[in-house]
Structures are given as structure tokens and as C-alpha cells.
């Protein structure tokens, strides 16, 4: 079972590291990081990630996992990456994303008419790609499974692990990882965090979100132009 | 604020990646991976991690984070690493661990008479280093903060972020990472998982746990011999 985790400059490391830790423990899993080239990439926080495979030499994927991050903005215009994702999706049993990775699936044309989720700050953007966007932490629509922001990747991965390997294996992995979360604060969603914190977080991301909006509009226009 | 995350062969990537994603977002944080040498290491699941710094060229640490993993067994006998940890602890504001990283803190002599926690399968072992072991997800004893198994590193990091940067910043980070966990299964602790799953997980780790027990006994003997 080949599980390819897309890596690119500016990804959010935990979007990938959470699901990797869960899915790599499924019996028979062969997880690897797949990059456009073999050159190491840097996460948005400076973490170095080294691809195990490239678009050229990676085996066909049973599961594709696309993480998000600020680097998503550039990928939305990267035909080579979008084409790799689109091509990989033909044979994959599951095509998945965490956080704003769903925007990449969208730009690759994989979310038209599909139910999907994404980071709470990107919900309005995901609609541009024809998705029916739900505010849920994990959304399953056939073989397309999408997770919400960053840490939702862990919940997403357990949902996927249960579907692939059954409840007992998934529970063994949950116990191994002691996934019994107890957040010491209660600000994990816009509803819980309250208006002040939401405004602070939006303010910090203003410039990135502006650029993202432009990149999404461009990618969505191209997607629909190709269709007509 | 220099935050050093120890890396070594056989670490559990998520022990490190969870806290990194939280702590690196604190204003003024300068996070880096610190290894014995600059050579990349591999996690217990094959994930490649590239040190940013080495024991030799890392700046003095304000915060030390020691992850766990099967590779802990070898580190328990690695005087160079134990001595780096012990030395770093003198000036650090916080000396911390996630999962079985606490065994390394213990072997370095930092947990004598201290309250601490660890992965549920390692609780009895941690006692060997003179710690008062609690079954909690996060334990704070002065400047020593320890987390339980793997995913508890995220809860640990939010607790630490609140102490360093205050509640508001910690809440902003929580919202950014959408840390509003909703595990789709309920087997995250031995009590919740039930006896069958606990036995399965213990069975899978039997050989590693046997070797760990021998390594802990040796390390504890050395620690107490050095004292007397």
C-alpha cells in the first residue's frame, strides 16, 4: 500500500507529520514523501523535509495525502504539481488532503461537486473550485477525504485508518500514540475562540490571505476555461 | 528564545513535530533541531530529519525538548548525548520531554525527586530514575515539564506556550492550528482502549520493551554509582 505525502516549500509540517505517524503504522503501509524533485524543501516554519521519491520515480499511489501551508499559494499555479496530482488520482483508492491542501485538490479539478472541508480561514476560497464546503473536521465523500486545519489531520488519519485496516488496528494505533487529547485551552475553533482571537489571527494572515485569494481566482478561472 | 529539539535515529517524529508546530509560532521563538552531528537521522518510521545545529555549534538553549521513540534505548547508554542534555539543563528556562524522552532526562539525572510523566508503557521504567511518575498527560514540576505518549506533545506544547507567552498568544496559536480534536475512536488510553487492545499493543512491543528494560537498569545503575 503506497502512501504518498506531497512535500513542497512552505507546507505546514504538522499537516503531514500527524497523518504520517498514524498511516505509516497500518500493516503493509509503505509511506513516502514525494516532491517535484529530490531537493529537500522547507516548511513554513523552517523545518527541512527530504523527499523519498519524486514525481518521476514514485510508484503509483494507493493513497495520496496533500498537506497545506502558505506554500499552497505557489502550488495553485504549478501545472507540473497539479498534473501529477490529477494523474495520481486516477488509480488511487483514496485522494486526501489536510488543511489548505484541499485547495490544491480543488485546483487539480478533483473537488467539483464534492463535499469537502479545509482550514476555517479557507472555507470561502474552496467554494471557488466547485466544492460543497462543510465546516466539519473531517469530510468523507467517496474516495475523497479532506481534513480541516492542521491538527485535524490526526482525526482524519484515524478515520482513514479505520476504513483501510478496520477498527481494531486503528484502535491499536490510537493507543500506541496515546491519542487521548486534552487541550489545556479552549480556542480550537472560531466559535470557541471568540471574536477577539479570531480577528487577531486573521490580521496576522491578512497579506497571505490576500495573495491566496488572487491565486485561487486565477486557478479557478483556468480550471473552468479548460473545461469549456 | 532558542528552542532546541533533540533529534536522533529512531525518534518518533510526531513527538517532535507536534510541539515544534506550536512552540515555533511563539513570537521571538528560534526553533532548531539539534543532533550529535549534522548527519540526517531517520525516525522509527523512516522519516528523514535534518539537524539544523549540532551539540558543538548550537547556541545555549532557553528550552530543551527531548522526544521519545524506539531510539531512546540506544541513547540511554550514549554519554555524549546525556552530557549535552545535562549541560544544557543548567541555563535552560525549561527542560522538557515528550513520550519516552523522559527516560533520557531521567538517565541524565534530571528527574530525581521530580514529578514526571511518560508514555503509558514506560511508566514503571521511569521510576528507576528516581522520578515520581504520574499518569497525567502533562506534568509540570518547576522548570521540568514532561508529556505522555506521542500526541500528548501537542497538549504539552500549549501548556508551555501559555506559560511563556500568555494565554492570548497561546489561544491564537490554538485557533491557527484548529486544535479542536475530535478522535473518531475512543482508545487513546489503556483505560479507554480495554484489555484486548492493550494486550495487542504490548505484544507488538515486547522485544523493544525487553531491551528497554535492560537499558534502563544499566543507565540507572550508572547514575546512582556516579552519585555515591
Describe, in plain words, how this protein is organized in 3D:
Two copies of one chain form a homodimer. With 228 residues, chain A is an alpha/beta fold. Chain A has one domain (2-227): Class I glutamine amidotransferase (GATase) domain (Rossmann fold, 3-Layer(aba) Sandwich), CATH 3.40.50.880. The first copy, chain A, has helices spanning 13-23, 72-75, 79-91, 101-107, 123-126, 152-165, 167-176, 190-193, 195-204, 206-227; strands spanning 2-6, 30-35, 41-42, 48-49, 53-54, 63-66, 94-97, 115-116, 132-133, 138-141, 144-147. In chain A, a hairpin with a 2-residue loop joins strand 10 and strand 11. The mean pLDDT of chain A is 97. Chain A is built from ten helices and eleven strands. Chain A is globular. Chain A starts with a strand and ends with a helix. Helix content of chain A is 43%, strand content 16%. In chain A, the strands form three sheets. A seven-stranded mixed β-sheet of chain A has the order 5-2-1-6-7-11-10, sandwiched between helices. A two-stranded antiparallel ribbon of chain A has the order 3-4. The interface between A and B is large, with 62 and 62 residues.
Amino acid at each position: 500500500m503506497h502512501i504518498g505525502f506531497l512535500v513542497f516549500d512552505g507546507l505546514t509540517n504538522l499537516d503531514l507529520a500527524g497523518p504520517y505517524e498514524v498511516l505509516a503504522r497500518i500493516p503493509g503501509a509503505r509511506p513516502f514523501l514525494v516532491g517535484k524533485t529530490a531537493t529537500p524543501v522547507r516548511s513554513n516554519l523552517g523545518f527541512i523535509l527530504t523527499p523519498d521519491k519524486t514525481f518521476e520515480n514514485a510508484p503509483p499511489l494507493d493513497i495520496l495525502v496533500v498537506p497545506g501551508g502558505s506554500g499552497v499559494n505557489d502550488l495553485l499555479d504549478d501545472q507540473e504539481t497539479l498534473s501529477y496530482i490529477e494523474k495520481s488520482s486516477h488509480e488511487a483508492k483514496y485522494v486526501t488532503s489536510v488543511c489548505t491542501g484541499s485547495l490544491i485538490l480543488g485546483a487539480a479539478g478533483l473537488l467539483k461537486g464534492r463535499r469537502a472541508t479545509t482550514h476555517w480561514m479557507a472555507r470561502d476560497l474552496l467554494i471557488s473550485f466547485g466544492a460543497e464546503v462543510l465546516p466539519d473536521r473531517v469530510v468523507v465523500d467517496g474516495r475523497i477525504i479532506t481534513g480541516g486545519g492542521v491538527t485535524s489531520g490526526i482525526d482524519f488519519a484515524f478515520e482513514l485508518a479505520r476504513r483501510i485496516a478496520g477498527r481494531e488496528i486503528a484502535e491499536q494505533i490510537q493507543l500506541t500514540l496515546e491519542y487521548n487529547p486534552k487541550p489545556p485551552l479552549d480556542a480550537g475553533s472560531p466559535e470557541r475562540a471568540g471574536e477577539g482571537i479570531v480577528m487577531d489571527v486573521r490580521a496576522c494572515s491578512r497579506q497571505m490571505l490576500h495573495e491566496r485569494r488572487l491565486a485561487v481566482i486565477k486557478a479557478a478561472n483556468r480550471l473552468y476555461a479548460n473545461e469549456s
